[in-house]
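To the team - iron/sulfur cluster complex, inputs and output below.
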Amino acid sequence: MESLLELDFSRSEIDAETERLLSRLDAVHWNKDTCAIIAPITLEINRLKKEMNAIILAHSYQTADIIFGIADFAGDSLGLSREAANTDADTIIFCGVRFMAETAKILSPEKTILLPAPNAGCSLAESITAADVRKLKEDNPGVPVVCYVNTNADVKAESHACCTSGNAAEVVNAQPGDKVIFIPDMLMAKNLEAHVDKEIIAWDGTCIVHEEFSPGSIEAWRKFHPDLKVLAHLECDSDVVDISDMAGSTEGMVKYIKQSDATHFMLVTECGMSDRLRVEMGKDREFLGSCVLCPYMKQVELPIVLECMKSPREDQIVTLDEDIIRRAKTAIDQMMAH
Ligand code: SF4
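Output:
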């Protein structure tokens, strides 16, 4: 890693960048000294983006320095996929986990997709292989397979349709027949039951973050804040979803909060989401209580992003077989259409 002292910025450039960072990160308790330390790195990353005609896409579970320091767009899997499909940039740097970067490659195969943290996987994606899907299809002939976007590209290639947490019920209902194989999240499959008109055959994957939440902490926080609105991700257990005011995707949460008159919210999802909204929504709304870190998402750090942009290692450049891209694209097109 290049010494930060070797980055060639004037004192006034660093001071201005420090102030820019502080104006956003103050809401999540970053101080001026810490912003000053990262300022040369964010300056250099943002300079390199222009030089490379690159954009940085960041998932909402990334840390605030990534989202507000260097990202051009932050959002959920669907929003990131749409950005990846529509950008004119030559290179997409993906601050997130592998299946997301693979989805970007499927949607924009001609672009260079860089994944600064190549070992950032996902417990859901890793719970199922393409061979598992082939076996499910063999055991359930003619039943369509809907895969959650949190799957590897070769699993998507074996699926009929792909969905996100925001459109899972719609995509399942759009499939022919009265049964659907839904992979890989068994908790999401359970949560979908009330919203679909089909029998769901589920796989047994879980998200190691969302399976941690329980109704107890929600009930405890409600005692302190009777006006608390609880927003749960569909990857949570149905015990949690059933006592929440809203259940859905992280961008669904954003929409709900913007339309709500309430002031206190509990986001039952990865910690980064509350931090993102603490910055974006200001002091009028408070985000309380729930926080579990995703060890995969948190592998991305500013110095790693900078190093990857300057000199990407082979394992940081996302490549996929043409055949996998073509077949997975069919499934992803259904996700994008709903
Ligand atoms: S939060 Fe859960 S679903 Fe998201 S990347 Fe981490 S392990 Fe996977």
